[in-house]
C-alpha cells in the first residue's frame, strides 16, 4: 500500500555515525604512550571526512515537498481523502510523471503555462510519489490566502482621518496600468471615473469561481482607490496616489475575503500573458498566505519573480502579525509573497493625521522580519531565508477611501463607514492595515513609470 513515509536517515549516514564511534574508540585506546602521534593523524582524518560528509549532504537535492503538505497528506491519507496541490515542474519531465498525471484518480484543476506550474487534485496517498518524479521542482499545498485589512484595529480606537496622498509632482499615472489582485472592485464607483466620466477599471476577471467581479467583501475597492482613486466624492480631500492610472481588476478573494494560492497564481499568470495589452506595469497584492517554504520554492514567490523579470513592479503587503494578543512584539511573521526578494514589501506606518514625519511611527500590528520560510536539505537540516523585510513602510492607519456598495465589512461593522460629508455617506470607509499601505506604494510606482517609462 502506498502511503506517506516518514523520512529516515539514510543507511550510509548511519554507517558513517557508527564508524565515527568506532574511530573515537580506537583513538581512546591509541592514546597510550607511543600512540599519540597516530591518534593525532586519525583525528585529523576524522575531521576532514566529517567536513566532507556534511558538505556532501548539504549539496544533495532538497526535499521537493512542503512540510505542511506532508502533514495534511498524512492525515488525509488515513481517511482516504484527496488533496489539492500546486505542482511546479522544470525541464526534463519524466514519462512516469506524465503517466501519474494521466491516472483516472488524478485531476489537473488548472494549468499555468507561463509559470511552469499546475494545480492538481489527487489522492493523499500519491502526494509523496508525485514529489519524487523526475522533472518535479516542488509540490506545495494550495493554501488559503487572506486580505491584510485590519477591521478590529480600525473600529477599536478614535478615528483619525488620514489622507492617502498629496500629489505635488504634476504626475497622475496616466497611461499606466495597475493590476489589483484582491476581492474585486466596484467599477461603477465615482472614484474610478476619468475626466470624461469614463470608467478607468479597464478590465475585470474573476479567478475565484464565484462568477462575479464586483466587491461584495469591500477590501479590493478600498485598496484600488488608494492607488488610483480620483478623490471626486470628497472634493479631492482623499485622493489616490495615481488618480488617472488605469486599473485592472483581478478578483482572487471571495465573498468572505479569503481565497487560495491557486487563484493568485492564475491571476499572475494572466498578468504575465496580457501585460502588454493593458500596459500593466505594476501589480498590487494586499494579501498573502503563510510563508512556510523558502521563497526559492514558494509558488507565489516564484510567480512574482517571473513578473519582475518581465519588467513589472510587484508590491506586496507585509502582513498584520506584528504583535500577539497580549500586545507583545512578534518577529519573523512576513507573509508570502512579501518574503520574495524581488517584491517591494510594504509595512504600515501611522501618521497620526499630520503632514509631519517627525511624529510618524511603524504601527504595532505591521509584520516584521526576518523572513522565516525555509528549505530542508537531504540531511534533514532546515535552512531559513532570514531576509530583511519589509523594504519600506507607508501610511496604513485609518485610511479613508472608496467603499463598495453594500459590502460585508461595513455591513458587519457600521462604524467603518466614513461619513465625511452628507453626500459621501456609504461612499467611503475606514480601514487599517498593511493592505492600505501597499497601494500607496503601488500608486507611487505608477507615477515613477509615467515619468520614466523605461524604468
Looking at this protein, list some descriptive labels:
single chain; 455 residues; alpha/beta; Alpha-Beta Plaits; Rossmann fold; 2 domains; eight-stranded mixed β-sheet; four-stranded antiparallel β-sheet; 11 helices; globular; disordered N terminus
How would you describe the overall organization of this protein?
The protein has helices at residues 11-29, 36-59, 67-78, 95-101, 127-131, 151-155, 219-228, 261-274, 299-309, 408-412, 434-451, and strands at residues 82-89, 107-112, 117-123, 136-141, 144-147, 177-182, 201-206, 246-251, 258-260, 280-285, 287-288, 313-317, 344-350, 361-362, 374-376, 382-384, 392-395, 399-402, 428-431. The chain is α/β, with parallel strands linked by helices. It has 2 domains: 67-141, Alpha-Beta Plaits (2-Layer Sandwich); 151-451, Peptidase S8/S53 domain (Rossmann fold). Strands 6, 7, 8, 10, 12, 13, 14 and 17 form an 8-stranded mixed β-sheet that branches. Strands 2-3-1-4 form a 4-stranded antiparallel β-sheet. α1 (11-29) runs antiparallel to α2 (36-59) and α7 (219-228) packs parallel to α11 (434-451). 48% of the residues are buried.
In short:
The protein has 455 residues and is an alpha/beta fold.
Q: Rg, please?
A: 26 Å
Examine the secondary-structure arrangement and name the CATH architecture of the largest domain. 3-Layer(aba) Sandwich
Low-confidence stretches: 1-36, 52-57, 154-165
CATH overall fold name of the largest domain = Rossmann fold
Distance between the termini: 56 Å
Number of strands: 19
User: In which range does the helix fraction lie?
Assistant: 25-40%
- The number of helical segments is 11
